[in-house]
Amino acid sequence: MKLNGYIDHTILKPTTLISDVEKLCKEAIQHQFAAVCVPPPFIKTAKQFLQGSTVKTATVIGFPFGYSAIEAKIAEVVLAMIDGVDELDIVINLIALKNNDWQYLANEISHIIPVIKQQQKTVKIIIESGILTNDEIIKCCQLYAPAGIDFMKTSTGYAEQGATVEAVELMRKHLSPSIQIKASGGIKTYAFAKALIEGGATRLGCSAGVAIVQQQDATAAGY
């Protein structure tokens, strides 16, 4: 199992430089990663650096806390699509979730999904599993699975708890096979990345993608 095709090579820090994005894209092309995930202002830049390659360009919406108004998230989505994004990683409104306002969450996703699907882009919904109970994760699966999402994503990487194998396994159990799972947050080793995939993840969001594939190569070589 080669991990490179599972990886979204990611840089989302607020101090990201153009040179950081260039390096990210060059590494993604070299290692044939699935996508790069960059801050919204760098979508066009990443597309230019990736020109001629098969690597997709992803960005984040409502990041990292998710409490932007629905209208603001839609505006972010539209601007990202104008800039040429392929995949959108959208943070749900966690305030609504923790206040048990599932109607708000249903309304939010029902307004956002059609805008994206009109342009046939990929939708990943970030639920921030590390700060949710198992029951809340299951409720998210039940709400978002019928909404037309392509991926459910564990984490932003900004909460106190990132991806876990247990959360991925729970999501896999409660999602239809057609919906993929992206694990992200704290994935720094080949062993952990492999365990997440074995648990059901089909995409990994990480800034340590190069180190992970190097560890895989070293393991395969018996080092």
From TrEMBL:
Record's keyword terms, sorted: Cytoplasm, Lyase, Schiff base
**What's an example GO cellular component term for this entry?**
cytoplasm
A Gene Ontology molecular function term of the record: deoxyribose-phosphate aldolase activity
Q: Which biological processes are named by the entry's GO terms?
A: 2-deoxyribose 1-phosphate catabolic process; carbohydrate catabolic process; deoxyribonucleotide catabolic process
Q: Pathway involvement?
A: Carbohydrate degradation; 2-deoxy-D-ribose 1-phosphate degradation; D-glyceraldehyde 3-phosphate and acetaldehyde from 2-deoxy-alpha-D-ribose 1-phosphate: step 2/2
Q: Which domain of life is it from?
A: Bacteria
Q: Where in the cell is it found?
A: Cytoplasm
What Pfam families has UniProt attached to this entry? Answer: DeoC
Q: Per the record, what are the reactions this protein catalyses? A: 2-deoxy-D-ribose 5-phosphate = D-glyceraldehyde 3-phosphate + acetaldehyde
EC number(s) recorded for this UniProt protein: 4.1.2.4
Task: Please give the PANTHER family that the UniProt record associates with this protein.
Answer: DEOXYRIBOSE-PHOSPHATE ALDOLASE
Question: What NCBIfam families has UniProt attached to this entry?
Answer: deoC (TIGR00126)
- What is this protein's name? Deoxyribose-phosphate aldolase
Which organism's genome codes for this protein?
Answer: Limnovirga soli
Gene of this entry: deoC
